[in-house]
Amino acid sequence: MTFNILFAASDIYLGNTIWYLITFAILMLLVKHYAWGPVSEMMEKRRQKVIEDLDSAADARKKAEILANEREAALKNSRQEATKILSDAKENAQKTSTEIVTAANTEAVSIRKKAEAEAKVAKSKALEDARQEVANISVAIAEKVIAKNLSAEDQKDLVDQFIKGLND
């Protein structure tokens, strides 16, 4: 009897196992037909999208690097232009400064020459006025001393002798 019980029990287990296997196989066929295909298709689309996104990101990175290089080159050019502009401005300022100093020196020399000429004229006029005054005073003194009027030629000779005496 114990043998029958074991055989009957194994029959039950064997029948259940076959039933489970058949159910599993049917379930696998249904999953393959209804779920596996769409899921596989969805996974393939997702894989393609990820690949495209990675490629797009790589392209974007390359474009960003190119733009960064272009911006850096533009910045470098801007710096060079700014340096050149500053250099030109300094050069122009120095040139203008030199021109102003030269013009001022020229004007100063001109003013000095004019002042010297005016001083010579004033000196000559003052000397002439002094000669005239000395001549008049000399004549007045001489008239009083000699008590007579001297001729113009005599007056001139007296003045010239008096001036020569002053210069010596």
UniProtKB/TrEMBL annotation:
Functional description taken from the UniProt entry: F(1)F(0) ATP synthase produces ATP from ADP in the presence of a proton or sodium gradient. F-type ATPases consist of two structural domains, F(1) containing the extramembraneous catalytic core and F(0) containing the membrane proton channel, linked together by a central stalk and a peripheral stalk. During catalysis, ATP synthesis in the catalytic domain of F(1) is coupled via a rotary mechanism of the central stalk subunits to proton translocation. Component of the F(0) channel, it forms part of the peripheral stalk, linking F(1) to F(0).
GO cellular component entries: endomembrane system; plasma membrane; proton-transporting ATP synthase complex
Bilayer-crossing regions: 18-37
Compartment annotation: Cell membrane; Endomembrane system
Signal peptide: none
Membrane topology of this protein: Single-pass membrane protein
Organism placement in taxonomy: Bacteria, Bacillati, Bacillota, Bacilli, Lactobacillales
Molecular function GO terms recorded: proton-transporting ATP synthase activity, rotational mechanism; proton-transporting ATPase activity, rotational mechanism
Coiled-coil ranges per UniProt: 57-99
Family designation: Belongs to the ATPase B chain family.
Keywords: ATP synthesis, Cell membrane, CF(0), Coiled coil, Hydrogen ion transport, Ion transport, Membrane, Transmembrane, Transmembrane helix, Transport
Primary localisation category: membrane
The protein's name in its UniProt record: ATP synthase subunit b
InterPro entries: ATP_synth_B-like_membr_sf (IPR028987), ATP_synth_b/b'su_bac/chlpt (IPR002146), ATP_synth_F0_bsu_bac (IPR005864), ATP_synthase_B_chain (IPR050059)
Binding partners and assembly: F-type ATPases have 2 components, F(1) - the catalytic core - and F(0) - the membrane proton channel. F(1) has five subunits: alpha(3), beta(3), gamma(1), delta(1), epsilon(1). F(0) has three main subunits: a(1), b(2) and c(10-14). The alpha and beta chains form an alternating ring which encloses part of the gamma chain. F(1) is attached to F(0) by a central stalk formed by the gamma and epsilon chains, while a peripheral stalk is formed by the delta and b chains.
